[in-house]
Amino acid sequence: MSTLRNKVQLIGNVGQEPTITYLESGKKVARVSLATNENYKKGSGEKVTDTQWHTLVAWGKTTEIIEKYVNKGNEIAIEGKLTSRSYEDKEGSKRYVTEVVVSEILLLGSKD
Question: Whole-angstrom Cα distance, residue 26 to residue 28?
């Protein structure tokens, strides 16, 4: 059970083209926005779709896969861990960010 302490699995659609950033160290990081949808009915019978947006961060080989194969609108499945961090913006205000650090990615849907 110890491996299940911080594990996230999501299936959704990529919201915009992935951003690949090259770091001074020579490493690169991929950032992807992922939309997941949950459908349910209200008490009145009205159908509702609740969309949640997730920020994904990938390193290493996963970045290579994202850079080569992932585009806006693609359906993907990911597994990773939830992380939170803070930083100061240009105005000096402290900002908090929650992200999913991707360890595995699976490309879903049809091949183009």
Answer: 7
Cβ contact 110:71 at 8 Å = no
Structure tokens belonging to residue 29: 């990081």
Is the pLDDT at 38 greater than 90? The verdict is yes
- Do 13 and 73 form a contact (C-beta atoms < 8 A)? yes
pTM to 2 decimal places: 0.83
Tokens of 8: 């996230």
Longest dimension (CA), the chain: 56
Cβ neighbours, 10 Å, residue 19:
11
Q: Are 67 and 30 in contact (CB under 8 A)?
A: yes
CATH number for the segment(s) 2-107: 2.40.50.140
